[in-house]
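Priority: medium. Attachment 1 of 2:
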C-alpha cells in the first residue's frame, strides 16, 4: 500500500524526523496529538492499465503540516518549516518504497496554502504532490 511506503519514506528523512518524529497520520490528527505533525490524504488520481498489469498509477496526495497556536511556542513558522522539509524530502524523488511500490516520481503540484483553524487554535500548511508509481 503506497500510503505505508510514503509514510515510512518521510519518517526516514532526518530533517523531517527532527521536526515531527513519527507523527505522520492518515486523514486526521489523533485527539492527543503532539505538535508539529503531518496528515495526508488521497485527493485524486487515475491509472493507465495495460493488458498484463495495472499500469502506471497517478495519485494526487495532499499533506497538511500542523502546529498548535500555544503560549509555549507553537507558531505558524513551525508548520511552515515542516512543509518546507516535506517538500525537500519528497519533491522529485524516484525510489522503491518499503512496501514494494516503485515511485517513478513525486512532483510538487501545489507548493502550498496556509490556514489558521480558529476553533482548534491550529496552524495548517498544505502542500500537494502527484505521485506516479507502479506496483512491483
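Attachment 2 of 2:
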Amino acid at each position: 500500500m503506497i500510503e505505508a511506503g510514503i509514510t515510512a519514506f518521510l519518517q526516514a528523512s532526518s530533517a523531517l524526523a527532527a521536526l515531527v518524529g513519527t507523527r505522520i497520520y492518515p486523514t486526521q490528527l489523533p485527539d492527543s496529538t503532539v505538535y508539529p505533525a503531518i496528515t495526508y490524504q488521497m485527493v485524486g488520481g487515475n491509472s493507465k492499465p495495460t493488458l498484463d498489469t495495472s499500469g502506471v498509477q497517478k495519485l494526487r496526495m495532499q499533506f497538511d503540516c500542523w502546529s498548535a497556536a500555544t503560549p509555549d511556542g507553537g507558531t505558524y513558522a513551525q508548520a511552515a518549516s515542516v512543509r518546507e522539509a516535506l517538500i525537500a524530502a519528497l519533491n522529485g524523488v524516484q525510489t522503491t518504497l518499503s512496501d514494494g511500490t516503485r515511485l517513478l516520481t513525486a512532483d510538487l503540484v501545489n507548493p502550498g496554502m496556509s490556514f489558521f483553524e480558529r476553533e482548534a487554535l491550529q496552524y495548517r500548511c498544505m502542500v500537494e504532490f502527484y505521485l506516479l508509481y507502479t506496483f512491483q
